Amino acid sequence: MSQAFDVVVIGGGPGGYIAAIRAAQLGFQVACIDEWKNGKGGPAPGGTCTNVGCIPSKALLQSSEHFEHANKHFADHGISVSDVKIDVAKMLARKDSVVKQNNDGILYLFKKNKVTFFHGRGSFTKAEAGAYEIKVAGAKEESITGKHIILATGSNARALPGVPFDEETVLSNDGALRVGAVPKKLALIGSGVIGLEMGSVWRRLGAEVTILEGLPTFLGAVDEQIAKEAKKAFDKQGLKIELGVKVGEVKAGKGGVSVAYTNAKGEAQQLDVDKLIVSIGRVPNTIGLNGEAVGLKLDERGAIVVDDDCKTSLPNVWAIGDVVRGPMLAHKAEEEGVAVAERIAGQHGHVNFNTVPWVIYTSPEIAWVGRTEQQLKADGVAYKAGTFPFLANGRARALGDTTGMVKFLADAKTDEILGVHMVGPQVSELISEAVVAMEFKASAEDIARICHAHPSLSEATKEAALAVDKRTLNF
C-alpha cells in the first residue's frame, strides 16, 4: 500500500522545502522528495541554491574578499601583514562545511515540522481518483500518493551549443565552485550574476579574468546610471569585461580552452585560458519528471505553464520557482512556495513581483527593486530622481569603502516610490528598507522623514530620498 499524503512536494530547493514546511504548519500531511546527494551519497536538500549556487558562492566571495583586504587594504588601517597566501583546498573545505550546515538545517526543519522526507528522484506515474501516484527512485524504489502536488524542480545551467560542460575546463556554476587551484587565466561567457560573482572570486585570488558578454550594454536589466558606476569599479579592480562580442568556436582540451570570438568592432579575436566558465542563463528542469504521463503542459522554453496563482494545467498540481515563469531567484521561489501552501489551505497567498529585490554580491554590491529610469522613460511615466553617493556617508568613509550610490525614483505627482537602485557597500542589506516601503506604497518623503541611525550606511537611503525633492543635507 502506497503512503498517502495531502501534499507532495517534488524538489527540496528554496521553493520546495519552504512550501513543504508551510504546508505542514497549516496542518497537512506532507512529503518532500529531493535527490541531491552530498559527497558521501547522503541527502543534501536545498537545491541548486544551497549546493552549487547562492550559499557556496557567497562563502567563496567572503573568503576571497578577506584575502584581497589582507593584500591591499589592511595597510590603510595600520595593519602590517606579509607573505599572504591562499590555501584553496581549505577555502573549498570551508565552503563545503557551510553548505553541509545548511543541508543539515533543512533536514532538521523537516523533522521539526513533521515533513516526511524521501531521498530520490520524484516522477509522475499516473493520476487516480482525487490524487496522483508519484514514484521515488532512490536507494530503493517507493511509491507514494498525494492529493496536491507542488513541483519545485528548479533549473539547470544552459550550455553553449556544441560545447558540453565537462566541469574540468568548461565549467557551469557547479564546476566554478570546485576549481582546485587558482587558474592563471580564466574566461567567463556572460556578465550576469554568476559571471560577475565567480569572476570576482578568482580575480581576487590572482587569476587574470576576462568576461565576454554578447549584449552591447553592461547589466542591461540594471538602472543605467547604477550599471555604469559598477562597471567603473570593476574596470578599476582589473576585471576585464568585453561587451558586444560574438562567441565562435570553443575548443577544450587537457591544456585549457581556446575561445574564438568577434569583438564589438568586428575584429576576430582568440582567447586562450586555463578554465572557461559559461554563465549564459539557466533552463527549467523537468528532466525525469514524466509529466507527459499525466498531461502536464510545458511552454516553448520547457517551463511548466502556470497561472497567476501557480496552478498548472492539471487539477491540484502546482509549480513554483525556476521551473515556471518569472525571475529565477531563490527568494521568489520561497514566496511562491508559501503562497501555494496557503492557497491549498483556502487562504490568499501573496506574491508581489513588483517588489522582488535583486542582488549581485560583488564588491561593490549591486541591489535594486522596482523599475529602472530607462523603463520609466520608455513607459512615459513622469518621475523624479534623487541620488546620494557613499562618498558623502560617514560610515562608508570609516569602512574605507565609499564606492557607489543610492538612487530613488518616485512618481512626479504622487511621490510614490517606483524604484530604488543601489551600488556600494552592503547594499544587499539596505535594499530591504526599499522593498518594505514599496510594498506599503510609501512615498520618497516617507523615507526622508524616518530617523536613521548615525553613523550608518542606511543614512544614504534617507539622503537619496531627500534628494528626490532636491534637499539633501550632507551633499
Automatic annotation (TrEMBL):
Active-site residues per Swiss-Prot or TrEMBL entry: H454
Location of the Pyridine nucleotide-disulphide oxidoreductase dimerisation domain: 356-465
Cofactor mode of binding and number, as noted: Binds 1 FAD per subunit.
Any one GO MF annotation of this record: flavin adenine dinucleotide binding
Disulfide topology: C49-C54
Pfam families cross-referenced by the UniProt entry: Pyr_redox_2, Pyr_redox_dim
Recorded catalytic activity of this chain's protein: N(6)-[(R)-dihydrolipoyl]-L-lysyl-[protein] + NAD(+) = N(6)-[(R)-lipoyl]-L-lysyl-[protein] + NADH + H(+)
Domain of life: Bacteria
SUPFAM superfamilies, per the entry: FAD/NAD(P)-binding domain, FAD/NAD-linked reductases, dimerisation (C-terminal) domain
NCBIfam families with a match to the protein in the record: lipoamide_DH
Protein name: Dihydrolipoyl dehydrogenase
Source species: Pseudorhodoferax soli
